[in-house]
Amino acid sequence: MGMLQAGIIPVTPFQQNCTLLFDADTKQGVVVDPGGDVDRIIEVAAQQSVTITEIWITHGHIDHAGGADELREKTGASVIGPHADDKPLLEVLDTRGAAFGYTVPARKLVPDQFLNEGDVVALGDHRFDVLHCPGHAPGHVIFVNRDMNFTIMGDVLFNGSIGRTDLPGGNHQQLLDSIRDKVLPLGDEMGFICGHGPGSRVGDERRSNPFLQGL
Q: How many angstroms from the chain centroid is the CA of residue 79?
């Protein structure tokens, strides 16, 4: 296996950071959180000569999961995640898409596999530990690659902020507990790609993020 590479594809009016992870040698890849703009995701993968083998979902909000069923149909890739606690969100993706004015209707999503705390997902030899981090959404998971010291964070922790908790299933204290108990122990040098905007490192957020003071 070669070096693991990551490219960010901003999708949907929410400019969600859909991530293409791929092995530089085998050109096998996974797409994390295809919220929409599926043809653009496929085009970017083709430009890199990457074959999409799996689709990983951090949580069931439309900007992260709204294009997953269409991408599965067009590529044959399996959909993995999130935690089953987000099943109610996945079941109403089509109505949420209409509410947010999606030009291509979002589809309900039934993943091929739900994920639990302690599971491992892999792209060849590149392994990611699965941590269940509820609060922004009940079934939110993050993907931690300890060999390369980086995490796909979804909407748990941002550069200078945290995930919103005013959406259905959100819980502010639960999100802070997830960050305290699951994210901060990953260590200050752990870098992360978040669901929107620029990434960061856990240590930078521990020191300067106003939402994390006192955790």
A: 12
Tell me the whole-structure pTM to 2 decimals.
0.96
What confidence tens digit (pLDDT) does each residue in 127-157 have?
Answer: 999 999 999 999 999 999 999 999 999 999 9
Residue 72 has φ and ψ, to the nearest 5°, of -60, -45
Encode 187-197: b = buried (16+ Cβ within 10 Å), e = exposed.
Answer: eeebbbbbbbe
For the chain, percent helix, then strand, then coil, each to nearest 5? Answer: 30, 30, 45
CATH class of the 4-212 domain in this structure: alpha beta
- Residue spans of the domains in the chain: they are 4-212
The whole-angstrom separation of Cα 197 and Cα 187 is 21
3-state secondary structure 153-181: EECCEECCEECCCCCCCCCHHHHHHHHHH
Half-sphere exposure of 52 (CA within 13 A, CB side): 29
Q: How confident is the model at residue 101 (pLDDT cuts 50, 70, 90)?
A: low
CA distances in angstroms from 109 to 71, 94, 210, listed in the order given? 11, 9, 35
* CA angle at 103 for the pair 21 and 165, rounded to the nearest 5°: 65
What strands, in cross-sheet order, belong to the sheet with 4-11? 4-11, 16-23, 28-32, 51-56, 78-80
